Amino acid sequence: xxxxxxxxxxxxxxxxxxxxxxxxxxxxxxxxxxxxxxxxxxxxxxxxxxxxxxxxxxxxxxxxxxxxxxxxxxxxxxxxxxxxxxxxxxxxxxxxxxxxxxxxxxxxxxxxxxxxxxxxxxxxxxxxxxxxxxxxxxxxxxxxxxxxxxxxxxxxxxxxxxxxxxxxxxxxxxxxxxxxxxxxxxxxxxxxxxxxxxxxxxxxxxxxxxxxxxxxxxxxxxxxxxxxxxxxxxxxxxxxxxxxxxxxxxxxxxxxxxxxxxxxxxxxxxxxxxxxxxxxxxxxxxxxxxxxxxxxxxxxxxxxxxxxxxxxxxxxxx
Amino acid sequence: xxxxxxxxxxxxxxxxxxxxxxxxxxxxxxxxxxxxxxxxxxxxxxxxxxxxxxxxxxxxxxxxxxxxxxxxxxxxxxxxxxxxxxxxxxxxxxxxxxxxxxxxxxxxxxxxxxxxxxxxxxxxxxxxxxxxxxxxxxxxxxxxxxxxxxxxxxxxxxxxxxxxxxxxxxxxxxxxxxxxxxxxxxxxxxxxxxxxxxxxxxxxxxxxxxxxxxxxxxxxxxxxxxxxxxxxxxxxxxxxxxxxxxxxxxxxxxxxxxxxxxxxxxx
Lengths: 318, 267
Prior knowledge:
Number of strands of chain A: 14
Helix content of chain B: over 70%
Number of strands of chain B: 0
Mean pLDDT of chain B: 89
Largest sheet of chain A: 6 strands, mixed
Oligomer: heterodimer
Distance between the termini of chain A: 41 Å
Low-confidence stretches of chain B: none
Number of helices of chain A: 12
Radius of gyration of chain B: 20 Å
Strand content of chain A: 25-35%
Radius of gyration of chain A: 23 Å
Strand order of the largest sheet of chain A: 6-7-8-3-9-10
CATH topology of the largest domain in chain A: Rossmann fold
Low-confidence stretches of chain A: 1-5
Structural class of chain B: mainly alpha
Strand content of chain B: under 5%
């Protein structure tokens, strides 16, 4: 075995998968070292879920190799299942069972003894702040509680590798923050995690390494900082009071950014990708003010996923 | 890869024990639904009891049978109809699990692949036992009197639920194919209807037109009902019991592998 594979707990090599004419994955390769978090970032339909389903043995790959815990997923899917936990996009819990019953069912199906199952279920329910809802059926749970229970279920088998497919999609900001805390704690304990997300900030907050995919291909790969540096760090966005001077303002600001400036006709905003955000902000205000143009609104923010894709692929992601 | 080999042998040794454990866990989960949503059980009991009452009092007077009373003729037949209609719910239950992503989680677990299907068909078998006992009880209240001993009655009830179990596997196959609750509802039911009525369940086959008779006489349903009827009302039941058991074995031999194959392939 090559050393790189031995150190990696997930190894994906040149994986292809198509559904009929749709090429879902077109040669994906990456490694996930033990105890780290990989964020798989991409828009809807980019192939994230397909990849997770291949790694969790739910789907066969067409070409290439994928190993989890050193076991080839196409050759020994049954063995792989002993090492993994999966929490999918729609919380896969049984509505008519209580929280406790759901976890105990999954524990038994992971082939834990009854005593371990009971203990583990009680621990996880407490840890995910579901103690009050132990004996309530899932029907009565909120969206955030369901997701937490789903995550708890995926941990019943004490998996070496945890797969979370869009763990916070559809959650309100508060539930999302709670979910992040829970995940962050798992990471602190050394769980190897592969997480898919559509949110740049989520990958940034939770992941050590980020793989960005679009249309089944990897378009960028690296740490959050490395990617951000490539993206230019941030976006300076400003709106001026007099609409007729938009063009003039835009021309004045051209040299400032790390990429081409953009005028958004609909919202009357000028967008400038910037590296050193605060310096660019001060400069922009000075330049515009010198010409007597009044600023209605100015904001320095992180790039959105769309902007990142625009920068990396030169095309709108959606 | 000695690690993998050791792991494989270990798994193989314990696989039977765990397969049974998985089936028990899944069966328990399915049965808990009846505790949590009692309406499920109430409605799956009301319909057959209603059938029993309607047939007895509406058609009973008009149908002439060899049995002493129509209710005595009807009970051995209608319990078979009940388990067949009950069996159509197997596919619906599976389609429901498939549509909610619950099976997706199960498929990522190191559990036996057959346990999802077996757990479903076995919990439906248990529900069918309950409903068949209930039907027999209601039958007693409205005049059903078996002409043979209780042992033969119990064999008849046992054969009936076993027959329903075999049909549950056909239903499971349909559920895995259509994957949609509403479609499973219709697709699972529609083919059972003609089978149930073109049989000896409600009327003696001899009263049917000849072309239908030749079909009805050889239908597995008629064979099974003839077995239960002879068991309950008297006579040599062995030939029909064997024929019925042969049908049950045949159906299971074909339907179980197809259903398990569909489950493995399902995404």
